[in-house]
């Protein structure tokens, strides 16, 4: 046999502390067919700075779809079925780098996903630029060993083969046809090269994570041994590995045989229904419509008689793509599906495009109670991938040859049922329904139930509810969705209210963050009183937009947005930085023309820097430091010119400047080092109050030659007798 090794790599990603699924870094690989060995090379590294400490990285693996993880231990939606992901931990302690290998023999072909993240986030709000977080990097590489000429086992044809040694197992594959109800594998004529009884182990199927349903069979001696499989995966290659358990130098000769039991589906006249549906939508002629519906009506007796001889009844389903990771399934024969006890009714839900595994598959069943004549009858249902469940019973295990399905049931006492499959794997999904009676199938042989089926694929179930936001995430060309929760809510779909804020707490948070901006009113009054009208206008602008930005920024139900959120945020940040800029320049006591030029020029530069990086610390610290430099230079100039300290009054220092500077430093400390997600609504309110009060203290006094409210004298609303000096000059002789 000829083996070919292939190598696949993706760029490293910077890891984040976990608070929601968007913090997990996703890697997407495609394993080719006929792969016999898969090896993951996982490389984790951290920075070398003193802020870097020991850290544990969690890595999750899954085949077919992104792994469903729950590092925070929150609750999932009520009807969601969750199976834990396969994960390992990588520890970065004293070593800067850690390399880990993960081997998977006979892996399933198709999409494989890896998700990596750091432990739970601390919840502290860090200002960008004040602290340097430690970078933790993670990279996943994939090595595969593929067999280029894997022998094909033809159904019904015995195939002799030789296992050369225990170190070199034999790999063959067989194709499973559509509508295969069962498969039987048989191994016979097992002898060694030394003409002794042999012992071999047969592994059927491929390994999938987090759960592997690979079947094992051990054969000893020359007697025939066989293994029967129910509902093998349709239209897929099934790998079979035979390995010798004997001595190292002895080869083993075996003969293999695979046979299938094919299920004959009942006729549903889906093509005729599809033609009539298209003609009705296009407005066909009455004669044509009548002609097309006549054969369907004529086939009704044949369908009824064929239902008894077929092992399943397939209902035609149309896949309707609505948007990204958004699909609706529509039944051509109507939403109601007839269900009997003779054979299961089968619906195909196509999710094999490769872009459907990043959402949630929702299947809802509603039983028409008047359609079932038996009061104690139950409609059992199974949702499974790759192959349908063709024999439903009361135990409801919903298992196929290599997968475990999801059970559902509706009855007269419980007529509704719903199933949510989070991140369904890329494959053909099947919904099987059958009528069951407690005293046996003979009791309800002639009964028939009507079940209304609703099936759709959505990015986020229930759009993450009122306390969550559905975000579409992207890794290269692959799209998937996740819920970002707020107001203390958690869980996959933001349905866990363990730490949720009450409505009263939400209202209190909104009132504190908005009404605390009213503390700018004293600063505005002081500025107007001292004839600083430009500064008062800036403070009014800041107060207005900060109030309505925080009213729109709330995570709960107490929200009011007067305009776009991004616009409110930008105006709030701009007003805050410009308020600091104009206050410090006002304290510098510059000439008016120079002060107003700096006002305008600084505002334009601040607006540009905020557009580049809105949350950067230097957007605030840069203008502050530059304004302080101008103020200190102006004060030194005034002091040197007057030959004494400036400001000269000790009362000005004790009662105004020192309290204002103290309030400003406390405000900066609260803003930079004390804010967390839990205390944000009152620590940020304290920031509003302290900054507004410091502005009122720091504004310089008015000019001595101006009276209070001198601006009102500029508005001349009366008649004045004006003297024309030029005419008087001309009158002098």
UniProtKB/TrEMBL annotation:
<feature type="transmembrane region" description="Helical">
    <location>
        <begin position="593"/>
        <end position="612"/>
    </location>
</feature>
<keyword id="KW-1003">Cell membrane</keyword>
<keyword id="KW-0812">Transmembrane</keyword>
<keyword id="KW-0245">EGF-like domain</keyword>
<feature type="disulfide bond">
    <location>
        <begin position="485"/>
        <end position="494"/>
    </location>
</feature>
<feature type="disulfide bond">
    <location>
        <begin position="460"/>
        <end position="470"/>
    </location>
</feature>
<feature type="domain" description="EGF-like">
    <location>
        <begin position="456"/>
        <end position="495"/>
    </location>
</feature>
<dbReference type="Pfam" id="PF12036">
    <property type="entry name" value="DUF3522"/>
</dbReference>
<feature type="transmembrane region" description="Helical">
    <location>
        <begin position="653"/>
        <end position="674"/>
    </location>
</feature>
<dbReference type="InterPro" id="IPR000742">
    <property type="entry name" value="EGF"/>
</dbReference>
<comment type="similarity">
    <text>Belongs to the TMEM8 family.</text>
</comment>
<keyword id="KW-0472">Membrane</keyword>
<keyword id="KW-1133">Transmembrane helix</keyword>
<feature type="transmembrane region" description="Helical">
    <location>
        <begin position="680"/>
        <end position="699"/>
    </location>
</feature>
<feature type="region of interest" description="Disordered">
    <location>
        <begin position="286"/>
        <end position="312"/>
    </location>
</feature>
<keyword id="KW-1015">Disulfide bond</keyword>
<protein>
    <submittedName>
        <fullName>TMM8A factor</fullName>
    </submittedName>
</protein>
<dbReference type="GO" id="GO:0005886">
    <property type="term" value="C:plasma membrane"/>
</dbReference>
<dbReference type="InterPro" id="IPR021910">
    <property type="entry name" value="NGX6/PGAP6/MYMK"/>
</dbReference>
<feature type="compositionally biased region" description="Low complexity">
    <location>
        <begin position="286"/>
        <end position="302"/>
    </location>
</feature>
<feature type="transmembrane region" description="Helical">
    <location>
        <begin position="508"/>
        <end position="532"/>
    </location>
</feature>
<feature type="transmembrane region" description="Helical">
    <location>
        <begin position="618"/>
        <end position="637"/>
    </location>
</feature>
């Amino acid at each position: 046999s000829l083996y070919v090794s292939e190598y696949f790599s993706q760029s490293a990603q910077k890891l984040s502390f976990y608070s929601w699924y968007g913090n997990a870094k996703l890697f997407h690989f495609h394993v080719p067919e006929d792969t016999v060995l898969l090896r993951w090379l996982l490389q984790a590294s951290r920075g070398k700075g003193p802020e870097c400490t020991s850290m544990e990285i969690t890595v999750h693996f899954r085949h077919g779809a992104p792994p469903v993880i729950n590092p925070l231990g929150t609750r999932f939606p009520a009807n969601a079925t969750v199976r834990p992901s396969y994960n390992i931990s990588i520890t970065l302690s004293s070593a800067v780098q850690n390399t880990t290998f993960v081997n998977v023999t006979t892996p399933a072909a198709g999409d494989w996903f890896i998700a990596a993240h750091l432990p739970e986030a601390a919840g502290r709000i860090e200002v960008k630029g004040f602290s340097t977080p430690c970078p933790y990097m993670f990279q996943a590489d994939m090595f595969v060993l593929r067999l280029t000429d894997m022998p094909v086992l033809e159904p019904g044809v015995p195939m002799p083969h030789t296992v050369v040694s225990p170190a070199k197992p034999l790999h063959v594959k067989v194709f499973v046809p559509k509508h295969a109800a069962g498969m039987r594998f048989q191994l016979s004529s097992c002898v060694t090269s030394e003409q002794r009884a042999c012992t071999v182990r047969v592994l059927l199927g491929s390994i999938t994570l987090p759960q592997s349903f690979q079947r094992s069979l051990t054969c000893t001696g020359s007697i025939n041994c066989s293994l029967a499989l129910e509902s093998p995966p349709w239209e897929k290659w099934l790998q079979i590995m035979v390995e010798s358990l004997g001595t190292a130098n002895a080869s083993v000769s075996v003969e293999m045989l695979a046979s299938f039991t094919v299920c004959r589906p009942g006729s549903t006249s889906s093509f005729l229904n599809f033609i009539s549906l298209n003609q009705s939508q296009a407005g066909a002629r009455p004669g044509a419509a009548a002609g097309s519906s006549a054969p369907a009506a004529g086939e009704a007796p044949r369908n009824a008689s064929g239902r008894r001889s077929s092992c399943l009844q397939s209902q035609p389903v149309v896949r309707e793509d609505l948007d990204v990771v958004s699909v609706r399934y529509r039944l051509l024969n109507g939403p109601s599906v007839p269900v009997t006890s003779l054979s299961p009714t089968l619906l195909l839900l196509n999710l094999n495009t490769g872009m459907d595994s990043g959402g949630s598959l929702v299947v809802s069943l509603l039983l028409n109670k008047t359609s079932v004549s038996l009061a104690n009858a139950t409609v059992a249902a199974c949702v499974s991938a790759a192959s349908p469940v063709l024999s439903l019973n009361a135990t409801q295990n919903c298992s196929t040859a290599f997968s475990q399905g999801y059970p559902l049931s509706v009855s007269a006492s419980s007529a509704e049922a719903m199933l949510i499959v989070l991140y369904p794997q890329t494959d053909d999904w099947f919904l099987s329904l059958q009528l069951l009676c407690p005293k046996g199938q003979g009791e309800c042989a002639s009964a028939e139930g009507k079940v209304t089926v609703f099936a759709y694929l959505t990015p986020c179930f229930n759009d993450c509810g009122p306390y969550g936001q559905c975000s579409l995430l992207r890794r290269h060309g692959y799209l998937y969705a996740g819920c970002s929760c707020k107001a203390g809510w958690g869980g996959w779909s933001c349905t866990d209210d363990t730490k949720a804020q009450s409505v009263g707490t939400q209202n209190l948070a909104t009132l504190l963050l908005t009404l605390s901006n009213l503390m700018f009113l004293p600063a505005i009054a002081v500025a107007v009183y001292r004839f600083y009208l430009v500064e008062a206008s800036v403070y009014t602008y800041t107060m207005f937009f900060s109030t309505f930005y925080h009213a729109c920024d709330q995570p709960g139900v107490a929200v009011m947005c007067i305009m776009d959120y991004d616009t409110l945020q930008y105006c709030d940040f701009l007003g805050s930085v410009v308020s600091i800029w104009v206050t410090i320049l006002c304290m510098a006591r510059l000439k008016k023309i120079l002060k107003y030029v700096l006002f305008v020029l600084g505002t334009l530069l601040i607006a540009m820097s905020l557009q580049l990086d809105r949350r950067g610390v230097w957007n605030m610290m840069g203008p502050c430091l530059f304004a302080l430099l101008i103020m200190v230079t102006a004060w030194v100039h005034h002091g040197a010119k007057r030959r004494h300290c400036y400001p000269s009054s000790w009362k000005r220092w004790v009662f105004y400047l020192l309290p204002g500077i103290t309030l400003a430093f406390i405000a900066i400390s609260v803003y930079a080092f004390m804010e967390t997600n839990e205390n944000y609504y009152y620590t940020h309110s304290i920031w509003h109050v302290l900054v507004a009060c410091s502005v009122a203290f720091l504004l310089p006094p008015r000019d001595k030659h101006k009276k209070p409210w001198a601006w009102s004298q500029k508005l001349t609303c009366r008649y004045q007798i004006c003297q024309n000096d030029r005419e008087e000059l001309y009158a002098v002789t």
